[in-house]
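FAQ: What does the model actually see?

It sees only this:
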Amino acid sequence: MEYQEAIDFLYPLHRFGIRPGLDRIYELLRELGHPEKRLGRTVHIAGTNGKGTVAACTASIFTAAGRKTGLFTSPHLVDFTERIRIDGRQIPKEKIAEYCSRLKSRVDALGATFFEVTTAMAFAYFAEEGVEVSVIETGMGGRLDATNVVRGDIVIIPSIGFDHTAWLGESIREIAAEKAAIVKNGSRVFTAVDEGDGLDAIRVAADRCGAQLSISGREAAFRVIDVQPGRLELEVSLASGEHRNLTAPLTGSFHASNVTLAVMAARSEGIGWSDIETGLSRLSASGYRARLEQISTRPSVMLDVSHNPDGMEKSLQALREIRGAFRDLFVLIGVAADKDAAGIVRPVCGLARMVVTVDLPTERNLPAEALAELCLQNGVAEVQVCRTASEGLDLLCSRAGEEDMILVTGSFFLVGELVAAGRWRGEARESGYR
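And it is asked to produce this:
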């Protein structure tokens, strides 16, 4: 196969949807010579929100420490190769074509899903390239997630909230138990879940496996020093008595717990503070994008991929923290039909002067008209419907002044569509929209 042929083979696998279970991924890995056994030290990350931030921070720190580090995350914004990286560099397109060629017959026979095939390719690439560390983000859940064929030397669970309840359970305890099932014998577990049924379920999983459990807020603490658009300064203190002021290119104090978890994991592996500081400063080189990423100024334009109520509330909380940095908030939003759209728009409606709703470029799209009605029901004074993201952005750019902010949010699909269309080249600059 050529790369485009591989992509044309991969994307239709979405038709199989979500199919929890490990039988198919084991068969694919057997076809590839069981690369999951050759991933070096593994950092396995599960949770509701914060997974991507923790994964990027952790991988960037390990890379700064000179350890060849694989990073597997999902989804991507523009190109499939963003999902699989080594030391920040995306997997070559020819490797995607090679692995798809090798796996096609088994995929067809098994009815393997998109995520299962992607996971198998990531592990094969990491093993082939001889990584020393693999940072692996689960897709959904944990117990029956395709990534749960690895033995996590380090397990990180940043948060537990309500998401994918049809698959993971209707209660926090059930959801936490599913996600904590990635804990294995001898794992070191780090979590920011510090109370209630979520922590109870994580503790049960750790005890069952004889795993050491460390809780941010007890074995570590953080203090936010300053929050600016694209800049977070905090002090991290560990139970050992160590403490250090750190700076990361992140917007919002809610990221402080994610940074702290990455620091706890890194220090447990003997990584020094200098490498931690360097890794955080180079976070963007890991491919980390669109978590309240400021890509333009005057007006300020923020890209955000929050797509569930908890994530959206944290993003809007972060904007309230920097409320002095903009006059009015204008929002461009699209939401997938399988998400809690009402819960997602509710935080937005309390702060936005105007909202533009758009359709997403996916069959899972919630129609823009239905999304607009939800916004009106939640008190937004002005709502407009546009057919495409670019049309919606143009409308907002014509309405927003230099002192205002435009927030693009609600879905990876939405942000990815605008980035792919060349609306931005990735760096903040004056009058950055076109």
